[in-house]
Amino acid sequence: MRIHVVSDVHGRVDALARAGDGADALVCLGDLILFVDYADHSQGIFAELFGAERATRFIGLRTAGRFDEARAMSAELWAGLGGDPREHLEAAVRRQYEQIFAAMPTPAYLTYGNVDVPRYWEDYLRPGQRVLDGATVEIGGLTFGFVGGGLRTRYRTPNEIDDEEFARKVEAVGQVDVLCCHIPPAIPDLLYDTVARRFERGSEATLEAIRRTQPRFALFGHVHQPLVNRTRVGRTECVNVGHFRGRGTPFALEW
């Protein structure tokens, strides 16, 4: 069996369409949409609605840790669109999801990222695309467990949840061969982004489950440029499968 695994797609429709080539199935660990692009400020929903110059200013405020100012700027821009700002945002998100799910190969097994909006997914899923969150599935004789979403942060991304809710999903997955999460286990080297120069949040519950149940692999994304992209916890190989928007190539898992 050969499984291709992607995470942090962030609108990379062209490469996603080819991500299943040569594989028996695709696993996607979330973050499908692109709200802002820290590398190319002209890309993403924010730039689409407000222009690259304003996106550059917004990204600069967030990068500097001036989140209250960034939120105030964003609120003013959304109010200036007229009508209900939520309708403008929903329309932009739905346009991206329509393109992404149309391009995604099948069979595909998916879970949510922290920037995803889960309530929209059902409207765009195609036959052969299956969403799992706090649940397991057998693929090629191995049991895969899926835990989606992120933990609460100062960034306030759409799909952040409480630590307790995240831990309940990890517990529901139980003993598996391959543990698939959007965010990494709480190991500092896996959490530090060398370009953004900051630590992202990882899950203590996931790390505890890895230590206790020792799956063959723990796969995740979320940190785009990690200090290290893999490490071991006992017999478990913990692997960041890569920033798919930047790399355009999936991680291959074979057995």
From TrEMBL:
Signal peptide: none annotated. Residues 1-226 form the Calcineurin-like phosphoesterase domain. SUPFAM superfamilies: Metallo-dependent phosphatases. This is Metallophosphoesterase.
